[in-house]
Amino acid sequence: MNLLNKFSNPELCKKLLTLLKNELIRPFRFMEVCGTHTVAIFRSGLRSLFPENLIHVSGPGCPVCVTHEREVAAFLELAQKDVVLATFGDLMRVPGPNKQTLKDLQAQGANIKIVYSPFDALQLALDTPDRDVIFIGIGFETTAPTVAATLNVARQQNIKNFFVFCLHKLVPPALKALLSGGVKIDGFLLPGHVSAIIGRGPYEFLSKDYNLPATIGGFEPVDILQAIYELVKMFNLNQPAVVNCYSRVVKDEGNQKALLMLKRVFEPCSALWRGLGEIPDSGLQIRSEFEAFDARKSFNLEDLPQVPPLKGCKCGDVLKGLLRPDECPLFNKQCTPESPVGPCMVSTEGSCAAYYKYLV
Ligand code: SF4
């Protein structure tokens, strides 16, 4: 069966592909900044339909992948203390120094629980009042509001044994750091989920300061094709702008309630990103009003351990769009989903895992 017929709107997709082909008068290299887009492009088969001169690279859009090796080393150390560590499942297999993972530590007896939301972790704290429960807060602007809401409830209920190790990161400063570092791309496909929270405004520097087109896109093949077509059109006309192509979900002003909650609990801080290093104002830290719940303060995590990068792993270059996953010498050799060397092969949203699942 024609692949297009599997899409929700095959006729429109066909038309967009034809328009895109006509518009692609020279090679166009775009970066998608969302692990969900990476997977959607592969899973739908869209990548095989892209015209040859449309070059697709993945950026720093997978929260697990961008978690810095020093942050991984810190939560592995934390797991070995007399605490209950609550985490999303994706972090369980991320290798730290000496290839150790949370899963290994759990097998050795560490008290590590997989949760599906920070509220589950809070419930765990309520259920075990004699134990300190620490939730590892990772993710971008999409997940941070729920963590903020959980901290707000913990404060209202005066819960004494719940803490968050806050490793949340903000997308726009990372894009700025990428471009300042000289990464060469012609446009950005911006993340739909993050944009649903922050809106369109925080990306305007892309067109104003870097003369780059950017579109906010949804996750259906038709959404992705439309967003890429708009990118290429703006590029050809040399009229860069930030365009919201996902207006059924993303409001230009973002989600004001979520933004207020974020602002109430967190404030921007410098953060470490795998591959990108330290980026000013690219992370969130817990405000002083909520510091009783800040694991960094209560568990001596202000200075993260100094550890070397994972030997041979090129995740940093993959996250910067400098290297395709299959160009890493370890890809599908020493590094596979069963035996991952780096986080980009661990996470379901990692580009190495997507390359392996859909191209090997
Ligand atoms: S293939 Fe494995 S070792 Fe290579 S960059 Fe990806 S995760 Fe790292």
| Total of helices | 17
Low-confidence parts, pLDDT < 50 over ≥5 residues? Answer: none
CATH architecture of one domain: 3-Layer(aba) Sandwich
What is the first-to-last residue Cα distance? 22 Å
Main sheet strand line-up:
2-1-7-8-9
- Structural class assignment: alpha/beta
Q: What is the 3D form?
A: globular
Output the CATH homologous superfamily of one domain.
HypD, alpha/beta domain 2
- Name the CATH class of one domain: Alpha Beta
Number of strands: 11
Bound molecules: iron/sulfur cluster
Strand content: 15-25%
Pattern of helices and strands: HEHHEHHEHEHEHEHEHHEHEHEEHHHH
Q: From the alpha-carbon coordinates, what is the Rg to the nearest angstrom?
A: 21 Å
For the largest beta-sheet, the strand count, sense and barrel status come to: 5 strands, parallel
User: What is the share of helical residues?
Assistant: 25-40%
Q: CATH topology of one domain, what is it called?
A: Rossmann fold
Which whole number gives the mean pLDDT?
95
Q: Can you walk through the features of this model?
A:
- With about 350 residues, the chain is α/β, with parallel strands linked by helices.
- It has a domain at about 65-170 and about 255-300: 3-Layer(aba) Sandwich (Rossmann fold), CATH 3.40.50.
- Helix content is about 40%, strand content about 15%.
- It has 17 helices and eleven strands.
- It has helices spanning about 10-25, 35-45, 45-50, 65, 70-80, 100-105, 120-125, 145-155, 170-180, 190-200, 205-210, 220-235, 255-265, 295-300, 315-320, 345, 350-360; strands at about 30, 55-60, 85, 110-115, 135, 160-165, 185-190, 215, 240-245, 265-275, 275-285.
- The strands form three sheets. The chain has a five-stranded parallel β-sheet with strand order 2-1-7-8-9. The chain has a four-stranded parallel β-sheet with strand order 4-3-5-6, sandwiched between helices.
- α8 (about 145-155) links the parallel β5 and β6.
- α2 runs parallel beside α17.
- The radius of gyration is 21 Å and the shape is globular.
- About 50% of the residues are buried.
- Bound molecules: iron/sulfur cluster.
- Iron/sulfur cluster binds near residues 318, 331, 335, 342 and 352.
